[in-house]
Design a protein that fits this description.
Chains B, C: Substrate binds at residues 260, 317-319. The complex is a heterotetramer, with two copies of chain A (293 residues) and two copies of chain B (382 residues). Chain A is an alpha/beta fold and 293 residues long. Chain A has helices at 19-31, 57-64, 75-88, 102-114, 158-169, 190-198, 216-225, 262-271, 283-292, and strands at 11-14, 35-39, 47-48, 51-54, 68-71, 92-95, 118-120, 126-129, 134-137, 147-154, 174-179, 205-211, 233-238, 276-277. Helices cover 34% and strands 22% of the residues of chain A. Chain B contains 13 helices and 18 strands. In chain B, a hairpin with a 2-residue loop joins β4 and β5 (83-84). Classes of the chains: A alpha/beta (293), B alpha+beta (382).
Chain lengths: 293, 382, 382, 293
């Protein structure tokens, strides 16, 4: 059991017949995820890697009790895919798709929240929980073979894998790794994700991977200072050398109207006692030190 | 996509907002002609999509068409914060009674639209936020509800207008127009700074900024076209990389950076900087790293004149080091070799094979990004 | 406001839905003319806003214009469930392959729009719900989200169409049109029953019903006008009462009912029925009960030919009984007396004064509604 | 303290300068309600019965800590008034206004619910709580002078007063009376209102006043049968003689598409053991009998 997924998590893959959807369905199955159904409108009745495909999420939910969804559909249809999943009654929606117009994300994510549905992403690697061998996303399976007590919450993809790898290499195990997504508006932001994993009694330490843009890191620091998050933490913030007004790969990684630079975030963390690593490779040491205290 | 002031103003006008008469020009002759047409004093405004053009000499008042012509000859070609002035917006000079600030953004934390309004304007919002934060009013608009009378009322009151006056109605319609532009054009920012009350008592947007979500540009083909014709702050390399499907940002150092994933690429830049080097760019090839992708990315940097050293940092779960090596090999072959230094750090499978392949090209393969970064910095200094 | 079939069909057509050619007629001559224009067999459909016209003889097929004329002479003036046929919709006869049901309403419990879809149609939804409830698919649409592709997909699949066929697309656009009509016209019901697949393979709404929210009629002046010109199921008394500002519903008994508040007025009707009487109407004068309001309400019933006894039941916290009595007095004065019996029950202040005033007019004032109701029933029997 | 209002309930009246708004503000003040502010756009700076008037609800909330609102504004502006109150941060909104287009109500009420705000109405008499001398609505003060243990939840206005009067006359006291409103879509429907008052430990019995239209009574009966509501209840349903397809005064009082008639509601109540009075005047007896059991 982890805060977001558990042994009863049954996954439907939206956009399962696409290249990415099909590829990662296989990886998720290999990892141990219970992928019970796929959806591609017009492709109902076929199968992908043995997983039955339906025309609507509602049917996938009705027939297989799917309670979580992973979305791989193209950007133009992805916001609707989220709404469809919410209306079909799943509890967790992971949106891998990049390049969804932010106004569409805004509406889809707000609707999901108003219905009590957790959305991870968009433009994210998803989440992986080694203790329950469940992955809803695209993280490399080989890095997440060691279950443990560390939760990683991150705005990044590959940097999450990198730091997870460093953690595992130095003897840590992972409880859950969540990539919240690189878009300006995401379903569960970095601060909320940290708050969520902190509530898991199995989590002993939280690694936070931030980056330029927005104020989620600052809000997280505030929550920590106020005691809402009371687990040992270590942080890394990417983009110290990012120039203002430029998008650094992620739509959300931009310093704008004078806010969102790495300096502000690093200072906010340090001011409340969350150590910040200067390089990704220092993170395990910081975490180890935090846990010893 | 950042709209030029004149494009933003045209949008405002399309949504019923009164703007000072004006047109955009690309030659001093045109500037003179427009100034003649408008009559009286005019303002020449350099069309570059950066803040603070005024201080940099990008805004000038001309009393006569001749003076406008003279000023234009100097303004065209001027470099403002790295951007060359190719267009000048010529507008009627308007006498101003007071300047206000009004903008609309998406607030990440509340996931709502957010108006920022201040009865003080003409300076950056960052400036107002520092010196007089109590003057900034925040009005949140939930997207599922949309802009309603009470939002508008709250903003217009804050800006200092009395209910049911002509200025109240003018300002209300500007608020409504800004909201409609925000939604209809998938904007990330709609700003008027200053929003001004003229001596005649009109409320008009003296300046206007609109930034459109790149991910939604496909819905607005006319903007796509305008961007293609005038790439604004996008450099040649950024444009080229974008076409191939990479994220690319120009920086001013000499160590070219290639990474997979935005966060990893940023951290690679930071690492280079950490060890005393200066990144030349940000080039994110995305999550995976196939031979072709590495090849194309490397080619971009091989052609870059400022780049002395190229540092490729790939972290891949299932990516094969020999694939990456093959990509490097192919790029060099296609470009006919290079005198730039290349450093590769790679975490994936088949590392030994990759190392051997790269060794033949005289390129070191590192498993540690820190070592690789140090090496890159060292090579750049040599 | 209940739209006639032809009005509803015109709306569907306006929203891009293919409908059988047809026009509305008010005389048999017109019917013949339209039948000639259309050519071939036509259907004559009585335009009365009640369900089940077919069984009542309100739908006939005519093979020739002459037969259409003959049938029309009989159909015009026909009384269908209390409504007189004044308009006939003449449409081309269409051969049908299968009939479906599709409607859109507001679901009170979930506060969402709700599509009810069934591959079986042509009979009442109540009928389908009773006999084959498993055939009815419910698709909820949240108003803040609006109709999306997946809602449409779910409905069209349920109705039995294959993705990406011509019928799939036709049906999808009908679903979309119904939703747009619902929202744009502030409708409470948009229904097509039957929605038909023709022998030619077209999907068309063979019948259409739209009910518009009376509270939103002000947004649709063309409908307000249509309602004024053709009041449909609204009786003369209902129209008159509505103009004054009362809620009035015609019933078939002989005891006229005046109450303040909808619930109280209904319970007054029920009370009369409970004691063996038959209410002639429902007349709710609203929460308060001033002299003028009582006067106007009473005048409506004094003029009603079927009403023998009038039972006024007012429960007012601060309403004064003498005010009510004065209202009764004024109504009788203006109408020059009456031979109808009047019974008043009133709970408020100044009851004794009110009792005395009414006593002079020979009208009993009760504090107990039960006693008053019994008295009213007794008087109606006398 | 009652479930919806208490001694800390501070009321803002929207549309306070109108005829109804002004009149009922005075009645509410007389009853003891803490009316702290009024709102009428353009009338900021004036007062009504000593209550300060503002141009926006936000200002009324900011200056006076108003946490509840009563809305008297005309139908065309009323839905926006609800949204304004919700955005200003009040917790309870009572909408007296009749004739609001139902599509507008739908959106306003859904938005309020998604923000955790309780809406009573529209087209309702509001609520009155004698134990805390608080009224947000238009009920006659003189009927609600006797605090006690009975909650009345009703779809009616005057019929609520009538039955409340009968209850008080026969010795009962009132904890709260809620008129949920006569429109097809209301913020808190009859079933939800009953569920809410049932959670109040001070409530000993619940009187339900239903009428034709919709299925709130049937849903209430179901909740009672399932044990979600476990207080003694007595019911009355108006409209046994209402013909189908006709609106009986209330926009929501209509038997449509074969559902919503009084017979179905009465049977639903009786089937689960909730006694239904044949006349309003029998309600106190039924309640007395229920409480003795």
């Amino acid at each position: 059991m982890t805060v977001l997924v558990g042994p009863n998590t049954k996954v439907v893959v939206q956009g399962i017949t696409g290249r990415e959807g099909s590829f990662h369905t296989q990886r998720m199955l290999e990892y141990g995820t219970k992928v019970v159904a796929g959806v591609t409108p017009g492709k109902g009745g076929t199968t992908v890697h043995g997983v039955p495909v339906y025309d609507t999420v509602e049917e996938a939910v009705r027939r297989h009790g799917a309670n979580a969804s992973v979305i791989f559909v193209p950007a133009r249809f992805a916001a609707n895919a989220v709404l469809e999943a919410v209306d079909a009654g799943v509890e967790l929606v992971v949106v891998i798709t990049e390049h969804i117009p932010v106004h569409e994300t805004l509406r889809a994510v707000n609707y999901a929240r108003s219905r009590g549905v957790t959305v991870i992403g968009p433009n994210c690697p998803g989440l992986v929980a080694p203790p329950v061998r469940t992955k809803l996303g695209i993280m490399p399976n080989n890095i997440y073979q060691t279950p443990g007590k560390i939760a990683v919450v991150s705005r990044s993809g590959t940097l999450t894998y990198e730091i997870s790898y460093q953690l595992v290499r130095t003897g840590f195990g992972i409880n859950i790794a969540i990539g919240v997504g690189g878009d300006p508006v995401v379903g569960l932001d970095l601060a909320e994700a940290a708050l969520r994993v902190a509530q898991d009694p199995d989590v002993e330490g939280i690694v936070v991977i931030g980056e330029v843009g927005g104020d989620a890191e600052e809000r997280l620091a505030k929550m920590y200072a106020e005691g809402a998050i009371n687990k040992p933490m270590a942080a890394y913030v990417a983009g110290r050398t990012a120039p203002p007004g430029k998008r650094m790969g992620h739509a959300g990684a931009i310093v704008m109207l004078g806010s969102g630079d790495a300096k502000s975030k690093i200072e906010a963390f340090r001011a409340v006692g969350i150590p910040v690593a200067d390089t990704p490779f220092e993170v395990p040491q910081l975490m180890a030190r935090q846990l010893k205290r | 996509m950042k709209l030029h002031e004149y494009e933003a103003k045209e949008l405002f006008s399309k949504y019923g907002v009164k703007i000072p008469p004006g047109r955009v020009a690309t030659t001093p002759e045109e500037v003179r002609k427009i100034a003649e047409e408008i009559g009286g004093p005019v303002v020449l405004k350099a069309q570059v999509v950066v803040a603070g053009r005024g201080k940099a000499g990008g805004i000038k008042v001309a009393k006569t068409p001749e003076e406008a012509y003279e000023l234009a000859t100097k303004m065209f070609g001027m470099n403002i914060k790295g951007l060359v002035v190719k267009k000048i917006y010529v507008t009627k000079y308007v006498e101003v009674d007071r300047e206000m600030y009004l903008s609309l953004i998406i607030d990440r934390a509340t996931r709502r639209y957010l108006f920022l309004a201040s009865p003080i304007g003409g300076v950056d919002i960052e400036e107002i936020a520092k010196t007089q934060p109590e003057k900034i009013k925040r009005v949140y608009v939930d997207p599922s509800v949309g802009l309603r009378d009470y939002h508008v009322r709250s903003i217009v009151l804050w800006l200092g207008f009395k209910p049911e006056t002509a200025q109240w109605r003018q300002t209300s319609s500007i608020v409504q127009a800004m909201y409609n532009i925000m939604v209809d054009y998938d904007a990330e920012l709609v700003e008027s700074n200053p929003l001004a009350v003229t001596k005649e008592g009109d409320v008009i947007p003296l300046d206007a900024r609109v930034i459109v979500d790149d991910n939604a540009l496909y819905k607005h083909p006319e903007l796509e076209k305008a961007l293609e014709e005038d790439p604004r702050d996008v450099t040649e390399f950024e444009m080229y990389a974008k076409k191939i499907g990479f994220h690319y940002v120009e920086l001013d150092g000499d160590i070219g950076i290639i990474g997979n994933g935005a966060g990893l690429t940023m951290s690679t830049m930071d690492l280079v900087y950490h060890f005393g080097g200066r990144p030349a760019n940000f080039l994110d090839i995305g999550g995976g790293a196939s031979r072709d992708v590495v090849k194309e990315a490397l080619k971009v940097l091989l052609r870059h004149p400022r780049v002395k050293v190229i540092f490729i940092n790939i972290f891949g779960g299932i990516t094969r080091a020999d694939e990456v090596a093959a990509g490097v090999e192919a790029a060099l072959a296609e470009e006919g070799g290079t005198n730039k230094k290349i450093v590769v750090r790679m975490k994936g499978t088949n590392e030994e094979l990759g190392r051997q392949m790269l060794a033949k090209l005289g390129i070191p393969l590192y498993e540690s990004a820190e070592e690789a970064a140090q090496k890159a910095v060292e090579l750049a200094r040599a």
